[in-house]
Amino acid sequence: MTLIIGALLFALYQQLIIEQRYQVTQNLQAEVQRYQLLAKSVSRRNFVMQIRAADSKSALVAWQNGDEVIGALSFMPDDMPYLPKTKDFPILTAGPDKLHILTGGLVETRYGPVLISSRTDHFAALIDKFVSASATAVMLTIVFALALGYLFSKAILRRLVHYNRLSEQIEHGHYDTRLPVSWRNDEFDILANQFNKVLDTLEKNLTAIRGITDNIAHDLRTPLSHLRIGIEQLINQPAENLPEHCANLLEELDHCLSTFNAMLSLTRIEEGQQTLERQPLSMHNMCYDLRDMAEALAEVNKQTLILNLGQDFTTQGDKHLLFQAFFNLVDNAIKYSGENAIIEIRQNNNRIDIIDNGPGIPDNCKEKVFDRLVRLDPSRHHQGTGLGLSMVKAIITRHNASIHLSNNCPGLMVTIEF
Question: Rounded distance, CA 46 to CA 331, Å?
Fold first, then answer.
């Protein structure tokens, strides 16, 4: 603010100087033309009379006639230049302001050089007052800016110190701490809102990690206990029972390994570490393959699998990953919809619906089922890792598609849109 005001005042000061010079120049130029024309048109005697009768308010005119100086001045200053060049010179008067500053020059006429000058000290006084007022304004601006800046910085620092204290609480594990948001909705409030969103995500992720840990302990405790008991019993097993007993232990071990392999694969897909082998894929062909693969499983459970195709749609994607995701959804429908259920694969353009008339999923669990190692209590008696739907969502998201669960009344409808 101080620099801007100072620059504006300096520009105004320069404009005043230019304006002063312009007015003096215009005044002197008008007088030059007047006396040159007067000298050409009147006699010497009339010329002298005109100089003596000249109005001193517009210009001070002097003419030297021999040793006598005629006009408004009592002497002719030395080394005066010819106009348009000018020179400043002082004169003494009998008035209250004894010293005046004049600016003028000589003009050549038929009767000799004539001195034409104009008073400029009042311009100088005006500029001095302007400079003094400008300096006062700049000083007041500096004082006001410093005072306001001090108060403003104190308010900012007070909020920063408060934010710093809250961040230290978060650093010490109080993840439920949130930065305050004021009614001003300024930049600090925008930052606080964004930081609070990060904390919400962090707290949600920590809660998810705790839930995953509990689920891992729950899902792997049983097979690992079976492995331990089985290994202890190997010592006392008859030789003829060893192959069957070892096969059971290997099945339990394979279940543990499949859980960890699925978690690693899911992480690679979510983090983009697994390269997608993209190729043009027809949704009609994908749905035909799904029906051929799942039809036998549905018949075993005495279920009806229906394929309903509309307009075909072609997308760029990884054939194996997308088929894995779709088959997982169809397999879940076959597992959990019960006997004599009707399962429909419906496709139209860029949308695929997998519909069943089973028990469905409660509304408050529809988003939770996509989290890792989450298995709803009714499904605990089925063999599985609890990572199937997490894998499905990761694959669908990598292909820039969306997945949504809704009620079929009764049953569940899974919608995938590319």
Answer: 125
